Amino acid sequence: MRRALELAARGPLTGGNPQVGCVLLDAGGAVVAEGWHRGAGTAHAEVDALSRLEDARGLTAVVTLEPCNHTGRTGPCSEALIAAGVARVVYAVSDPGHESAGGAARLREAGVEVIGGVLADEVRAFLHVWLTAVARHRPWVTVKWASTLDGRAAAADGTSQWITGTAARQRVHEQRAASDAILVGIGTVLADDPALTARGDGGELLAHQPIPVVVGERGVPATAAVRAHPAGLIETGSRDLEAILRELDARGIRRVYVEGGPTLASALIAAGLADEYAVYLAPVLLGGDRLAVGDLGIPTIADARRLRITSIEQLGDDLLVTARPIQGS
Ligand SMILES: NC(=O)c1ccc[n+]([C@@H]2O[C@H](COP(=O)([O-])OP(=O)(O)OC[C@H]3O[C@@H](n4cnc5c(N)ncnc54)[C@H](OP(=O)(O)O)[C@@H]3O)[C@@H](O)[C@H]2O)c1
Question: pLDDT exceeding 90 applies to what percent of the chain?
């Protein structure tokens, strides 16, 4: 299962489907084939591993996620394993998908021995973002901002480019490229005219481009840079955050990276829709009232939103603090 998990990590983070790995073992426990999922529309891990063998009869398939039981862009993995004559299937985590679940039951019905729950905690931690998104029917939301040490996101005149240095900005591009969509408020589009593309060191476009989503009732100007985004543009024309996230879920968007501004970030936090924070802190002071986060509707310290810091990275002169809400806080 650990080898299957290593293989799973080779698949893409983005896209509607999870990262899944599979190894096929012979009766002596030796690995005879390996496979992993390379993204929506391509073979699932089990089918990828099976495709490397002429004869898989009597083998054991070890797979990180319960084999799916539905026909999407590819056929059900349960049927592929049965047709190949696999004798035993060992998996870690049950499939939470409402359409795709039921693979284990289907395999048992066909006489295949099935063992679930192997290394389940490890695999669940690895798939945490995807599992959470699928279970809630809304994407995982990372709220990012760059602020001064005194918590300001812009100067008095509204300028905020660039609070942080190049290493921090490069990390932002990596985080964009690891997301399915970038959410931004119309205020930021009007103030900064950001391109919202994921770019490398030399300014070149990275292979994966998340789709920009502009939140707010006002329209995006015809001349806005984001209109030239290679992944297209979603203009919501609305402030209804829950409805927007449901709509993104329906498009197979699992990871959303929120790039502000303060009004949109605060609204998401106040609504309990922020799953993770990526806070870039620069050793700069601006003072004034342009705070990174506005009113969250918290009247007293006892009601403060408590977070757990999951990592701290130094990027040039800046810090990236990553944190998640403490459940129930
Ligand atoms: N330091 C950073 O990390 C960072 C990042 C981004 C922006 N900024 C700075 O932030 C400033 C812009 O801030 P901002 O707060 O005006 O921008 P914003 O959050 O991007 O946009 C605010 C607008 O979004 C709409 N909106 C979307 N969801 C909403 C909701 N749930 N509730 C209310 N309104 C909602 C409203 O427009 P409608 O009336 O059209 O609905 C609102 O006026 C600029 O100075 C920019 O440079 C800094």
Answer: 90
pLDDT tens by residue, 207-266: 999 999 999 999 999 999 999 999 999 999 999 999 999 999 999 999 999 998 999 999
Q: In three state form, how does the secondary structure of the chain look?
A: CHHHHHHHCCCCCCCCCCCCEEEEECCCCCEEEEEECCCCCCCCHHHHHHCCCCCCCCCEEEEEECCCCCCCCCCCHHHHHHHHCCCEEEEEECCCCCCCCCHHHHHHHCCCEEECCCCHHHHHHHCHHHHHHHHHCCCEEEEEEEEECCCECCCCCCCCCCCCCHHHHHHHHHHHHCCCEEEEEHHHHHHHCCCCCCECCCCCECCCCCEEEEECCCCCCCCCHHHHCCCCCEECCCCCHHHHHHHHHHCCCCEEEECCCHHHHHHHHHCCCCCEEEEEEECCCCCCCCECCCCCCCCCHHHCCCEEEEEEEEECCEEEEEEEECCCC
Average pLDDT over residues 7-35: 96
Same domain (yes/no): 237, 313: yes
**Residue 281: domain span:** 137-325
What CATH number corresponds to the domain at position 317?
Answer: 3.40.430.10
- Whether residue 142 is annotated as binding a ligand: the answer is no
Same-domain status, 312 and 277: yes
Instruction: Among 141, 241, 264, name the best residue to mutate to test ligand 1's pocket (greatest count of ligand atoms within 8 A of Cβ).
Output: 264
Ligand 1 centroid to 239 CA: how many Å? 11
pLDDT of residue 161 exceeding 90, the answer is no
Kindly state whether residues 25 and 127 are assigned to the same domain.
yes
Give the position, in ligand 1's atom list, of the atom nearest the Cα of 161: 47
> Is the domain of 122 the same as that of 183?
no
